[in-house]
Amino acid sequence: MASSARVNIWRYIGIGFLVLVWLGCIGIGMVLYERTLVSWWLPLGLSGVLAAVSGIVCERFWRGVTTSRSSILNFICNQVFAMAVFSALILGVNYWLASASSAHSERVTIERKYTEKRYHSQRVGKHSYRRGAPYYVYYAEVALSDGRKKELSLPKSQYSRLRTGSGYDIQMKKGAFGLPVFSDLEFHPVTVK
Predict the structure, then answer these.
(1) Using one digit for the tens of pLDDT, what is the confidence trace for 46-95?
(2) Does residue 173 contact residue 180 with C-beta atoms inside 8 Å?
(3) Which terminus of the chain, N or C, has less C-beta within 10 A?
(4) 191: pLDDT confidence band, cut at 50, 70 and 90?
(5) Domain count across the chain
(6) Do 91 and 106 share a domain, yes or no?
(7) How many angstroms separate the CA atoms of 78 and 59, rounded?
């Protein structure tokens, strides 16, 4: 009986670790997606295919995690977990192994600027929360010279210096997989000579 309880404890610790890895990969993927000039479906589609292949290979692993013999349940668990891991891996390798020799300045135009008002959550009791103090998140939608657009989250100091319709230069690199990345989110005004 004691060995069965010990196995369950280790299984729950393992599940907790997998959930933390999953959440971390989702966070890393979201940050790197914002710094990569790519359509949303490309990293998700590629990671979905890789996750499907890994689902076949990792079926026994997921059977041990879920303690279920249902192939569908184990495949779904693998898809959810592996898509987050592969998306973070694809975008991470592309960003962190970007070619330094391909660094160039790209001209962008500020299409629009906007803010979103969000609220902190405030704990008021053991099990109750309420809406707390407001805070703002600042965004700018930029259009590149080839017509592609990207929405960027910016700090307030940079947001307040940008003007809608104005041209700026921004540093970009070619990523390891050929996807362009913003190497620096500093906007430099275009000087007309």
Answers:
(1) 999 999 999 989 989 999 899 999 999 999 999 999 999 999 999 999 99
(2) yes
(3) C
(4) low
(5) 2
(6) no
(7) 8
- Domain hosting residue 73, numbered range: 2-96
In this structure, the chain runs to a length of: 193
Q: How far apart are CA 125 and CA 134, in angstroms?
A: 20
Single-letter residue type at 165: G
Locate all alpha helices (DSSP H) within 35-115, ordered by sequence. 41-57, 59-66, 71-96
Pairing state between β 180-189 and 99-123? unpaired
Token readout for 118 is 């969000």
Nearest to 89 by CA among 59, 37, 39, 51: 51
Same domain? For 68 and 129 the reply is no
Name the pTM for this structure. 0.85
Q: Do 184 and 159 reside in the same domain of the chain?
A: yes
Cα 17 from Cα 107, distance rounded (Å): 43
